[in-house]
Amino acid sequence: MNDFSYLKMQSLIALLGWSALLGGFLYYDVGLARQHMDALARKEARANFNKDQAFRLWATQHGGVYVPINERTLPNPALAQIAERDIQTPSGKKLTLMNPAYMLRQLMEEFSDLYGVKGKITSFKLMNPHNAPDAWEAEAMHQFERGAEEVFEFTDIDGEPYLRLMGAMRVQQGCLKCHGFQGYQLGEVRGGVGISVPMRPYLNELNAAIHQKLLIFGTIWAVGLSVILVWVMLAQRRLREKTAIAAQLQRQHEAIRRANAELTHFANISAHHLMEPTRRLLSYAQRLTGRLNHQIQDDDALLSLKYIEQGATRMRDLIRDIERYLAAGVPRARLQTNHPDIALNDVRRRLSRLIADTGTRIEVLSLFPVYLDLPRLTDLFDVLLGNVLIHAKSDLAPSIRISGERLQSAVRIRIEDNGPGIAEEYRESNCV
Ligand code: HEC
After folding, report:
1. Whole-prediction pTM value?
2. Which among 42, 144, 273, 398 counts the fewest CB atoms within 10 Å?
3. 155 lies in a domain?
């Protein structure tokens, strides 16, 4: 995956993550608002139920209430068994006894028209068939028989949303005046009162709140989105710059590599061409020395010839060193792990006469295998040991100590000698 598609993926993740985070918060917040609405509606239902009960108890404590008879309030046939259901005031005004259920039904009918909260009393044992329970009320009353005191449900009535509460009504002493004949015991469930609270106003409020939240969360989301977009744009620009720099570096690198290759090629050819006259110089100097050695007595001329030969030898060695140096970076055989001892023994065999002549002492401690082709490994010992032998002090037999060390990802070979050492100014240099 390249840097650009990686960035694309990152920005997609940031975008989705941010949206999911805000979406989650919004969902949670709306959930809370809904719970709050439910709690408020339940509270309203309970408040109505309690007020309803307070009225009923008040009326029960008075054994019912006498009110003037008119076309809205006629004597209750269900109270026919009660003595003095209808009475007359001394001035002749006719009064009738209103039982709590009758009173509350009248109250509720008007209340319902005014405020929308509906109330209804019901029971399994009816004195008034008008009070018969519907399926849900019947189920709620079964729950009362099992010990519940109230049952809630969110539901639709005539296509409008309502919260219904059904609360249990238990038989008290005062109830027995009128219900005693039905055979009830004190504390027994006589029936229940259902309260229906219209949910429309609550839902309207909730929707308004949700709209408000959508606006606020939407704004926050948009702000976050712009931050992400700006970040992506900046990152993209940085990436483009980085890519451009990398490409330029690559071009420069290539140019340097080419220049280096040309230079090496040139140096190789030069060394090759220089070697040829040098060899000739050496061989003719040797030939001349051989011929003239016993024929002329001119010491000066012989010395000059010796210097020419020495100079040519030195030049040949130098050119060979240059060739070796140029070839140092290129493997000359299969790259594999070789043991330095093989190369070292080879070099010691080759230099054996010089070693014997100079009385050189060589001490080899344990060496570790290295990953290098054998020719270059051999060259390494050849140059270093040759150096020691060439530069040895004349009054001191050379002594060489070769030791090895294994590092974390490399092998180190250390060659120490008792020669004059490398001059201070060349020590840090790697092309001596
Ligand atoms: C003054 C007499 C009177 C008293 C006191 C009284 N009730 Fe009633 N109650 C009635 C009458 C009459 C009805 C049936 C007619 C109606 O619906 O108005 C009724 C109806 C009911 C109903 C509706 C089911 C049905 O049978 O139609 C319930 C439930 C109920 N009463 C419970 C109680 C409880 C509980 C008490 C005591 C807290 C109580 N009543 C006190 C006279 C009374």
Report:
1. 0.62
2. 273
3. yes
